[in-house]
Amino acid sequence: MKKLIYFLIVVVLGTTAYAQTYNTFEPSKTQFMIRGYGHTGFEYMDSGDETESTFLGAAFAPIFLYKHSDRLMFEAELEFVLEGNELETGLEYADVMYVLNRNMTVRAGKFLLPFGTFMERLHPAWINRLPTRPLGFGHDGIAPSSGIGVELRGAFNLGGPTLNYSVYTTNGPRLKDGSLEPEEAGMLQFQNYEDNNLAKAYGGRLGLLPFSDSSTEIGFSAYSTSGAGEEDSEYEDIGAFLYALDFSFVKQISEIGGVVDVKAQYNSSNVDTATYIELEDGIAEEYSFDNQSNSFYGQLSYRPTMASSDFVKKLEFVGRYSDFNAPEGAEWEEKSVQYAFGLNYWLSWRSVVKLSYQTTETEGGHDSDGITNTDGLFLHWAIGF
Fold first, then answer.
1. What rounded mean pLDDT belongs to the chain?
2. Nearest one of 376, 360, 377, 358 to 368, comparing CA atoms
3. Cα–Cα distance list, 27 to 20, 24, 30, 70 (Å)
4. Could you write out the DSSP letters of every residue in 28-45?
5. What is the DSSP letter of 184?
6. What is the mean pLDDT of residues 36-49?
7. Residue 85: predicted pLDDT
8. Nearest Cα to 132, choosing from 345, 294, 287, 341?
C-alpha cells in the first residue's frame, strides 16, 4: 500500500512539473501572414496596321511573410499570370531579413532593387495608378528591377528631415552579345540567377524627406559593374554605369479639396562601347555604337477626398508622360513618347477599377524602322489583400 501511495505521489508531482515546464501557454513570437494582390481586365490596342482586343486572364501574386522573431524575418512573392494561352509563373523576390538595430537592416536573397522607386514601391497593380508601366521599365527596359545578393538598408531621423539609404551587391547583369538574338546586341539582361563572370554589381540609393510631414522625397540611385560579358569572352570587361533620380510628393491640400500625388523618375544607362557582328546578305560585318540610353516619366494624380459626395471622394484623376531613348546605331535603336490618362474609382483603400487611354509614338524599335503610333484603351480591376 505504501508503495502504491508513493507511486501516485511521484506521478502527480511529475505531471505537475511537466505542466509547469511545457504548458506555460506563453504566446509564440513567430508569426505567419499571407498578403498579395491580383488583377484582371480588358485591353484594346490599335497600331494602324494591327488591332487587338482581348479580355485579360487574371493575375495572382501571393506574398508570404514570416516573422521568426522581432529581428529575423522572411518574405517572398510568387506571380501567376495567364499570358499567350499559357500559365507563366515567377518568383518576384524571396529574401531573409535581420534587424541589426533601429537604423540598420540586412537582407539576403532575391530582392527588389531600390533603383529609383517605381519597381520597388509602385509597380504592384493595385498601387500603380495606371494599368501599364512607364516606358523604360519591364521587358527591354533599362532600369534593373531585382537581383540576387545582399543589402544593408535603414533610415536616420535628422531632427525633422529623414534620410533613408540602401547599399547592396548582386550578381551583375549580362551583356547580350548578339549570338542568340542579334537584334538585341548591347542590351543588358538583369535577371541573372547565376553570375556569368567574377564581376559583381554594386549599387545603392539615398532618399531625403526634407519636411517633418514626410510629404516630399528626393532620391538618387546608382548601379554599376566592371564586367557584364561572359567570362573568358571578348566582352568580359565591358562595364556599365546606371543612375536614377526620383521625386515624390503626396499631400492633402485643403485649397483644392483633395490629395495631390506627384511621382517622377529619370533613368540613365551607360554601357562601354563594344564591337558586335551583324549579317548583311549573309556577310558578317562588324559595327559599334555609343551605348547610352535614358528614360523618364512624370505622373500627376488628384483625388477629391474632401468632397461632400461619397461617390466623388472615391474618384481619382491621373495623367502620365513618359519617354524612352535607346542608343542610335544599335539594332534596337528607338525613340518613344507616351501619354496616358486615367479615371480611377476606389472601391476601398486597396481595391480600384481603372479606366485609361494611352497613346504612344515610337520611332524605330525591334519591329519597325519607321514611326508607329499605337493607341490603347484599358479597363482594369486590381485588388490588394
1. 90
2. 360
3. 15, 9, 9, 13
4. PS-EEEEEEEEEEEEEEE
5. G
6. 92
7. 82
8. 341
